[in-house]
């Protein structure tokens, strides 16, 4: 057990360090720069106060990411990422005047480890491959969100002057504004006047540059000509031309967003398939390579991170929360959770409904009176427990064991 505890109040340009002993006495403080020289100064300070490879001094800090955290994790010590809201409550324990300083905040973080270390979790000891997948899978998901945001901006812009484009590409049964054919055609004809002048041969050539429609090129050519030549309200000619220039600029941003999604998807798949847990995760119904990578990115590959399956379910938001006080007893869905894992789990459970055993489990929950969202969350809870077991025992998913029929006990 360490006799010295370190707290770091981080900032963009500098970090404040505080070391306290078991009695709460501050034995050292230091302000370091956010560079390699500052990190070496920190390690030297820790070494002077008993830090060794066999007994490293634990560190509390209010962020789980950044170069400083990555460098500290590489030393093999335990890093505790303290929620800033929790740190603020601890600060009120020592002072009611609401006085605040960076050095005092570092001391508060060190004292959190001294008094309540058992109540906080250190950062997981994920492998380098696991951390790589986490970076790529989250970046891919962010890129998808960014792409949709850009498509929404383009749609909003086209509503201002180009209803024919929305009629041609946006809506149920249409390819979508983010599709290659929509981007190619709208770049070539960014205004209603340009679109109305497109000939059949020009449309045919543009469709061959983009994705080929499933209904056939000729049928798509006629559909687009009809949409582009219908009667709509129009802006003034010069205003329409200016809006067309803006549309081309937005389409280029959509092109860049689509390219980012494609490249990040390929990098994520490559990294995930090289991980030893990939075969186990993709053996589950409803998990593809990309969705499996998202799940692994959030649960990590440190098998000591979760004490049991219940802890993993709570982290994912699949387990409910019980609030009991006096005669009041309420069971509600968990709202404090890993939002990325919860989102991936929702899609995982929904996709798993295409297989027999998960579908039967979902139907039983629905027949018992649960709504769709609750039944889907319960299925995610079930699958997540199975995943915990399979990863711990290095076993592939077995539907007969995972969804075994209930045993009727004799009266």
UniProtKB/TrEMBL annotation:
This is Transposase. It comes from Streptomyces nodosus. GO terms for molecular function: DNA binding; transposase activity. GO terms for biological process: DNA transposition. Residues 6-163 form the Transposase IS110-like N-terminal domain. Residues 279-360 form the Transposase IS116/IS110/IS902 C-terminal domain. InterPro entries: Transp_IS110-like_N, Transpos_IS110, Transposase_20.
